Amino acid sequence: MTINEIQDEIIAEFSDYDDWMDKYQLLIDLGNEQQPLAEQYKNESNLIEGCQSRVWLQADLTPEGKIHFQAESDALIVKGIITLLIRVLDNQTPDDILSADLYFIEQIGLREHLSPTRSNGLLSMMKQMKMYALAFKAKQG
After folding, report:
1. Which residues are identified as catalytic?
2. Which residues contact 49 (CB under 8 A, 6 or more apart)?
């Protein structure tokens, strides 16, 4: 699936709910479905700067030239947010990630319903994922 197809799928899922309490619950449920991050990846170098809660992000380049992301957070809603970002960007090429317009964040109303610190954290997560894509693209030559 393309990044935009996945984003459209997420927009459709969130459009089933009118109330933001239900949308927060959906985020929490998504985060709870995420596989826990292996302890070896919960280290300082994988900790995302700029997040109020602790978020660890691990990225690996697959032999097919796609990036595989794994993450975990100690905050339920933040874990749901990083789960959504992974759902959109996981197993995509560095070029696709770098050129992606993550419009689903605005479309589902996420940014306007986050506190300023969570919004900053969201931006930090997206920036870190794009930085990994940039680094892997440079490695590929």
Report:
1. 51
2. 124
